[in-house]
């Protein structure tokens, strides 16, 4: 997926809040919920929620992405859990 | 910074505005991720199966270099270091 780095923001945005499987150039696979794709480096931020609370965050650099496959769509609850992990509390009302 | 321009096909003004809005939201989220990572122990996976760990300090705006502290390498601990992002496959941390 060499064109991953050259995709448009609206194409990357489709992956936000979705559960995906990212395959890297060294043929490793990582699964998680997409918090964002950096439009500058095309890096994917994957979040795995831990049972004990908190989360594990894995960022795959854009140049190392070979393929991204959507496994499952996220709902509003996932979207707000992702947001509350990273956003300061006062910001939440302003992001739709 | 070098924010890459949209690729050709999008000439419609409405589309461009929407594109900028999405780009800024994606970017803000990524910057929030970097803020969350500041001061944390981060595992870096580099090419050629090298794994190192360090305390993340800062990134430049183009995501070309990361400044880290106490970089634990197979050859010992480096007090301060810059990691080139082009050498990395991925990095991870607990939040």
Task: Describe this protein's structure.
The complex is a heterodimer of chains A (96) and B (95). Chain A is α+β, with helices and mostly antiparallel strands. Chain A has a single domain (2-88), classed as SH3 type barrels (Roll), CATH 2.30.30.100. In chain A, 17% of the residues lie in helices and 36% in strands. Chain A has two helices and five strands. A five-stranded antiparallel β-sheet of chain A has the order 4-3-2-1-5. Chain A starts with 8 loop residues before the first helix and ends in a 10-residue tail after the last helix. The model of chain A has no long low-confidence stretch (mean pLDDT 90). Chain B has one helix spanning 13-37, and strands at residues 41-46, 50-59, 65-73, 76-84, 88-94. Chain B has a five-stranded antiparallel β-sheet with strand order 4-3-2-1-5. Helices cover 26% and strands 43% of the residues of chain B. The two termini of chain B are 28 Å apart. Chain B is built from one helix and five strands. The longest helix of chain B is centred in the first third of the chain and has 25 residues, at 13-37. Chain B has a single domain, classed as SH3 type barrels (Roll). Chain B is α+β, with helices and mostly antiparallel strands and 95 residues long. Strand 4 of chain A pairs antiparallel with strand 5 (88-94) of chain B.
């Amino acid at each position: 997926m060499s064109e991953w780095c050259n995709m448009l923001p609206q194409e990357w945005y489709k992956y936000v809040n979705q559960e995906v499987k990212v395959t890297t150039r060294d043929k490793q696979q990582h699964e998680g919920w997409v918090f964002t794709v950096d439009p500058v480096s095309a890096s994917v931020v994957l979040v795995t929620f831990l049972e004990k609370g908190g989360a594990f965050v894995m960022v795959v650099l854009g140049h190392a992405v070979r393929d991204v496959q959507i496994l499952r769509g996220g709902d509003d609850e996932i979207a707000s859990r992702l947001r509350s992990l990273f956003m300061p509390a006062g910001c939440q009302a302003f992001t739709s | 910074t070098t924010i890459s321009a949209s690729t050709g096909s999008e000439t419609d003004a409405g589309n461009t505005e929407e594109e900028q809005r999405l780009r800024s939201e994606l970017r803000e989220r990524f910057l929030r991720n970097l803020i969350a990572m500041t001061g944390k122990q981060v595992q870096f996976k580099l090419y050629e199966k090298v794994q190192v760990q360090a305390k993340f300090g800062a990134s430049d705006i183009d995501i070309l270099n990361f400044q880290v502290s106490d970089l634990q390498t197979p050859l010992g601990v480096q007090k301060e270091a810059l990691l080139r992002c082009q050498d990395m496959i991925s990095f991870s941390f607990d939040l």
